[in-house]
Design brief:
The complex is a heterodimer of chains A (309) and B (391). With 309 residues, chain A is an all-alpha fold. Chain A is built from 12 helices and 2 strands; from the N terminus they run H-H-E-E-H-H-H-H-H-H-H-H-H-H. Chain A has one domain (2-302): Orthogonal Bundle (MetI-like fold), CATH 1.10.3720.10. In chain A, a hairpin with a 4-residue loop joins strand 1 and strand 2 (61-62). The chains are: A mainly alpha (309), B alpha/beta (391).
Chain lengths: 309, 391
C-alpha cells in the first residue's frame, strides 16, 4: 500500500517536472533556432542593425529601427486608449452591476466573446468600416483643427499608425477587461465592507480598497494586453500602410516588426531572409523584455505588501 | 467495484461502435479504378502565390484524371519556393520570376534546373478617381510607361498634371493628390510592373534599380502598401485618387463586385491597349516568338515585357505581361527518389501545360500560346531518370 502510493506520487512528480521542463526547453529551442537563422545577418550588420533606419533589400541595406518604432508606437497608442476603457468596463461590471446580476453577466459574456474574435476579422472590419469612418470623422477633423501639433501634421489617408493603434486598442480591450473583471470579482467582500463601515463612498471604496488589492492582477491583465498588441500581425498589416517610416506624424503610414515578417518572409532568400529572421528575434526579445520589465515593476509595487505574485 | 465494470463496459461499447464505423467506411469505399499506367505517387510543389488559385483547380481536375496521384502545392512565395527547390525538398519549385545567376550558382553541384513556364498573368494600373465633374472615372484612362514611372517615382503628384492631361484630352481630371498603392509582400505582379517601369524610364532604372518582386519603392507624397492583391484592391477602393498595379486575374475574377477601374497602357506600336485575355495572349505569343532559351539553360534574363517593349510590329499586344515558372531538376534520380515520383511529376507538369491551360479562363488566367507550350514540351522531354528519358 505504501509503496504503491509512493510510486504513483513519484511518477506524477516526474511527469509534471517533464512538462515544466518541456516548456522551458521550447523557449530555449525557439531562441536558439531564431539566433541560428539570423546569424548571417547578425554577423553582417552587427548592432548597427538595431539603429539602421533604411530598409532596401535589393541593395542589402537593412535596418530594424522603423519597425521597432512602429511596433512600440502602435502598442503605446493601443495602451493609452485601451487601458482606461478596459479598466472602466471591468470596474463597471464588477462594482456597479452588483445589483443587476443578469445584465452584468450578459455584458461580461459579450466582452469574452469579443476577446475570442480572430484577429484577421478585426483586420477586415478595419479596412472596410473603421478606415473610412476614422479617416473622415476623426483624422481629418483632427488634422484640420490641430494640424500644428507634429502628431497630427500629415494629411490622413486612413492607412496609418493612428488607425492601427485604434484597432489594437479595440482588440486588447476585451482581453484586459475580461481578466480585470475576474480579478476584481475575486477581491473579497470583506475589503469593501470594511471601507463602507468607515463611511467611504462607492468610488472611494473602489479607488482606495478594491483597486489596490487587485493591483497585481490588473497589472497582469495589462501585460497580457500589451503582449497581444506587440505581437498582433494580420489586423495591423491590413491597416497600417506598410511603409517603413520614423516620424511623429500619427497620420503617416508605418510598419511593424510582425507586419514585416508576414509580408516579406515568403519572397525572401539569403541575407534578406536572415535579416527577417533577425527581426523575428528582435520581436521575441521585445516581448520578453516587456514581460520582464512588467514583472519587475510589479515586484516593486507589491514589495512590502502581503500580496504575492 | 460495480462502477468500474460499468465504465469498462461503456468504453468497450464505444470502441466497438467507432471501430465498426471505420470498418464500414473502409469496406464500402469503392476501389479507385484507374486506366493509367502510372504508379501511385505524391507530387509536392511549393512557390509563388500568383498561380495558387489556378493550382487548386488543376489539383482537382488532375485528381480526376489520375486518381492514384496526389498533388500538393504550398503557396509560400517565390523566394521560399526557389530556396526549397535548391534544398531539394520538393518535387517542383514555382516562381513568378526566373532564377537569378546567384540562385543558379547555389544549386547543388552537378544538377541542372529546368525552367518551365506554366501560366501567365498581366498587370494593369487600377484606380479610383472622382472626376472634376463629379462622375467616377471609368475604365480606359490612358497611360504611358514613362507617365506611370513618374507617378510611382513621386514626380507626378496630381491627377491634373499636364502629362496625364495630355494623354487624356476631354476628360475632366481633378486637382486631386495621387496616392500610389503597391504590394507590401513580394509578388510576381510587382516584378512584371517594375520590369515595365525599368524599361520605360531611365530615372526609374537609376533610382530604383532592377525589376524585383519586392522593389525599393520611392517615397511618393501619399503612399500605401497593402498585403496581397485583395489588400491593394481594398486600399485603392477606399482612397479617392489612388492608383496601383493589380493582377488582371483579380479584376476579371471580380467584375461586378469591385468598383475598381483600370487604365490602358501604351505599347511599342503606340496604341493604348486595355488588357483583355486576347491581347495578353498576343503579348505572350509575340514575346516568346522573339526567342526563349532551352529549358536547361539560364532563364535569368527572360522577360516578355523586354521582348515586346520595342516590338513596333506587334500592334495589338498588351505591354505588361509576365510568365510564371515551374522549376524541376533535369536528372530526377537525386535523394533516392523513386521512378514513380519522377514519372508522376513529369506527367503532372505535362498535363498542366497542355490540358490544364483552358481551365484557367474562369479565373482570369491567360492560357499559354502554342509556341510556349511547344518549348515546354521540348523541355519536359529532357527530363531523365538515371539516364533514360521519362517521356
Amino acid at each position: 500500500m505504501q509503496s504503491r502510493l509512493l510510486r504513483g506520487d513519484t511518477i506524477l512528480k516526474i511527469l509534471l517536472a517533464a512538462a515544466a521542463l518541456f516548456i522551458i526547453g521550447l523557449l530555449v529551442a525557439l531562441a536558439v533556432e531564431l539566433y541560428l537563422g539570423a546569424s548571417a545577418s547578425i554577423y553582417k550588420f552587427g548592432p548597427a542593425f538595431l539603429i539602421g533606419s533604411k530598409w532596401i533589400p535589393n541593395e542589402n541595406i537593412l535596418g530594424a529601427l522603423p519597425f521597432i518604432y512602429g511596433t512600440l508606437l502602435t502598442s503605446a497608442i493601443a495602451i493609452i486608449i485601451g487601458l482606461p476603457i478596459s479598466l472602466g468596463v471591468a470596474i463597471f461590471i464588477s462594482e456597479k452591476l452588483k445589483s443587476h446580476q443578469t445584465f452584468g453577466y450578459l455584458l461580461g459574456t459579450v466582452v469574452d466573446l469579443l476577446a475570442a474574435v480572430p484577429s484577421v476579422i478585426y483586420g477586415l472590419w478595419g479596412i472596410l468600416i473603421l478606415i473610412p469612418l476614422l479617416r473622415d470623422y476623426v483624422e481629418r477633423p483632427l488634422h484640420n483643427s490641430l494640424g500644428f501639433i507634429p502628431l497630427f501634421s500629415g494629411t490622413p489617408y486612413g492607412f496609418n499608425f493612428f488607425t492601427a493603434g485604434i484597432i489594437l486598442a479595440v482588440m486588447i480591450i476585451p482581453t484586459i477587461s475580461a481578466v480585470s473583471r475576474d480579478v476584481l470579482n475575486a477581491v473579497p467582500n470583506s475589503q469593501r465592507e470594511a471601507m463602507y463601515s468607515l463611511g467611504a463612498t462607492e468610488w472611494e471604496v473602489t479607488q482606495r480598497s478594491v483597486l489596490p488589492y487587485a493591483r497585481s492582477g490588473i497589472f497582469g491583465a495589462f501585460v497580457l494586453g500589451l503582449g497581444r498588441a506587440v505581437g498582433e500581425t494580420m489586423a495591423v498589416t491590413m491597416v497600417i500602410g506598410n511603409i517603413p517610416a520614423i516620424t511623429a506624424n500619427l497620420f503617416s503610414p508605418g510598419y511593424t516588426l510582425s507586419s514585416l515578417i508576414a509580408n516579406e518572409f515568403g519572397e525572401s532568400s539569403g541575407l534578406y531572409e536572415s535579416a527577417i529572421i533577425e527581426i523575428g528575434l528582435i520581436l521575441f526579445l521585445v516581448a520578453l523584455l516587456i514581460n520582464v520589465f512588467a514583472r519587475f515593476l510589479l515586484w516593486r509595487m507589491t514589495r512590502g505588501t502581503q500580496v504575492k505574485v | 467495484m460495480k462502477n468500474t465494470y460499468i465504465i469498462i463496459a461503456a468504453i468497450v461499447v464505444i470502441v466497438i461502435i467507432i471501430g465498426g464505423v471505420f470498418a464500414y467506411i473502409y469496406i464500402s469505399a469503392p476501389a479507385k479504378k484507374s486506366t493509367s499506367t502510372l504508379a501511385a505517387a505524391t507530387v509536392n510543389g511549393a512557390g509563388g502565390t500568383l498561380v495558387y488559385p489556378l493550382m487548386t483547380v488543376w489539383q482537382g481536375a488532375y485528381g480526376s484524371a489520375e486518381p492514384q496521384i496526389t498533388v500538393n502545392y504550398n503557396p509560400v512565395g517565390s523566394g521560399t519556393g526557389i530556396t526549397d527547390f535548391t534544398k531539394q525538398l520538393e518535387d517542383f519549385g514555382e516562381s513568378d520570376a526566373p532564377m537569378t545567376a546567384v540562385q543558379y550558382a547555389a544549386l547543388p553541384s552537378g544538377t541542372t534546373a529546368l525552367t518551365i513556364p506554366i501560366s501567365a498573368s498581366a498587370v494593369v494600373p487600377a484606380y479610383n478617381l472622382k472626376l472634376a465633374n463629379g462622375t467616377v472615372a471609368q475604365d480606359g484612362l490612358k497611360f504611358t510607361g514613362a507617365v506611370l514611372a513618374d507617378i510611382f517615382l513621386g514626380t507626378i503628384t496630381k491627377w491634373n498634371d499636364p502629362k496625364i492631361v495630355a494623354l487624356n484630352p476631354g476628360i475632366p481630371l481633378p486637382d486631386t493628390l495621387i496616392t500610389t498603392v503597391h504590394r507590401s509582400d513580394g509578388s510576381g505582379t510587382m516584378f512584371a510592373f517594375t520590369n515595365f517601369l525599368y524599361d520605360s524610364s531611365s530615372t526609374w532604372a537609376s533610382q530604383v534599380g532592377k525589376p524585383s518582386t519586392s522593389p525599393a519603392w520611392p517615397s511618393a507624397p501619399a503612399q500605401i502598401a497593402a498585403p496581397k492583391n485583395a489588400g491593394v484592391a481594398a486600399a485603392i477602393a477606399e482612397t479617392n485618387g489612388a492608383i496601383g498595379p493589380l493582377e488582371i486575374a483579380y479584376i476579371l475574377e471580380n467584375t461586378g463586385q469591385t468598383s475598381l477601374y483600370y487604365g490602358s497602357v501604351q505599347n511599342a506600336a503606340g496604341n493604348y491597349i486595355l488588357a483583355t485575355v486576347t491581347n495578353i495572349a498576343a503579348a505572350l505569343q509575340a514575346g516568346a516568338a522573339a526567342g526563349l532559351p532551352a529549358g536547361n539553360a539560364a532563364w535569368t534574363s527572360v522577360s516578355i515585357v523586354n521582348n515586346i517593349f520595342n516590338d513596333t510590329a506587334a500592334t495589338t499586344v498588351y505591354p505588361i505581361a509576365t510568365l510564371t515558372y515551374a522549376l524541376v531538376y533535369q536528372n530526377q534520380n537525386y535523394n533516392s527518389r523513386s521512378y514513380a515520383e519522377s514519372a508522376a511529376t513529369v506527367n503532372f507538369l505535362s498535363w498542366i501545360v497542355n490540358s490544364g491551360q483552358s481551365l484557367g479562363k474562369g479565373l482570369g488566367y491567360v492560357p499559354l500560346p502554342a509556341n510556349i507550350v511547344s518549348v515546354d514540351d521540348a523541355t519536359l522531354k529532357l527530363i531523365t531518370y538515371s539516364g533514360t528519358a521519362i517521356i
